[in-house]
Amino acid sequence: MERNFETVMVEQCAPVLAGLKPAGLFRYETGDCADLARRVKNWNTQLNPKGLRVRVLKGCVLNHRYLVYVYRESKLCAVLADEKVQSFLRQEGYRLPETGVPDVYGLLTQLSRRLCCEADFPHEIGVFLGYPLTDVVGFIENQGRNFTCCGCWKSYGDPDAAQKHFDQLSKCTAVYLRLFHSGTPILRLAVAA
C-alpha cells in the first residue's frame, strides 16, 4: 500500500526536522519513480535553506521500494568529522580523506553503494543516522544481542541516558505528527539550523 510521502517523512524524521538528530531514514513505496524524483527535488528546494537535504539512498524499480534519507548536512558533517567515527568507517572499508573536512556527499555515495550492492546490511549506517558510535559498534559486535536498552535503536551504554534520549525523540515525533495532522506544513515544522 502506497502511503503519503510527507506523512511518512514526518513519522520517521520528525527529530531531524526539529534539529534533534542529524539524519533519519524511511522506506517509501511508489510505482511512480518520476513522482518520487519530483518530490525529492521539491523538498530539497524548500528545505535546503533550513539546512536539510533529502536523498534516495536505495531504490528498486521492481518492488517499488526506496530508502529515503533526510539529513542536516552540518550536523552530519560534525558526526563524520569525529576522529573515532572516521577510524571506524575506515575499518569498515570507507575511503576518507586523510585530513580535513569529510566529504559528506562521497561518504553517502559509498553508503548507498553498500546498501544496493552488498549481500549483508551495512550496520554502520547507524553512524550516518546519528546513533552513538558505542551503540553502532556494540550492535555489530553483539550481532544485535546483549543491548542495555532498546528504543529508536539498540543501546549498549548507559540505559537510563539512552531511555531519556529515546523518550525525547518519541515525544518530538508525537508532537510533530499532531501538528502535521492538524494542518501545520512541514516547512513550518522544519527548524533552521
Explain what this protein looks like in three dimensions:
- The protein is of the alpha+beta class and 193 residues long.
- The protein is 52% helix and 15% strand.
- Helix 1 packs across helix 8.
- The chain is globular.
- The model has no long low-confidence stretch (mean pLDDT 95).
Key terms for this structure?
193 residues; alpha+beta; 3-stranded antiparallel sheet; two-stranded antiparallel sheet
Write a short abstract of this structure.
This protein is α+β, with helices and mostly antiparallel strands. The chain contains 9 helices and 5 strands.
Count of alpha/pi helices: 9
Order of helices and strands: HEHEEHHHHHEEHH
Mean pLDDT over the residues: 95
Please give the radius of gyration in angstroms: 17 Å
Largest sheet: 3 strands, antiparallel
Total number of strands: 5
Portion of residues within helices = 40-55%
- This entry's quaternary arrangement is single chain
Overall spatial form: globular
Q: Assign the structural class, choosing from mainly alpha, mainly beta, alpha/beta, alpha+beta, or little secondary structure.
A: alpha+beta
β-strand amount: 5-15%
* Arrangement of strands in the largest sheet: 1-3-2
Low-confidence stretches: none
Secondary-structure map with pairings?
Elements: H1 5-17, E1 23-29, H2 33-47, E2 52-60, E3 65-72, H3 73-81, H4 83-91, H5 104-117, H6 125-128, H7 133-142, E4 149-150, E5 154-155, H8 159-181, H9 186-189
Antiparallel strand pairs: 1-3, 2-3, 4-5
Helix pairs in contact: 1-8
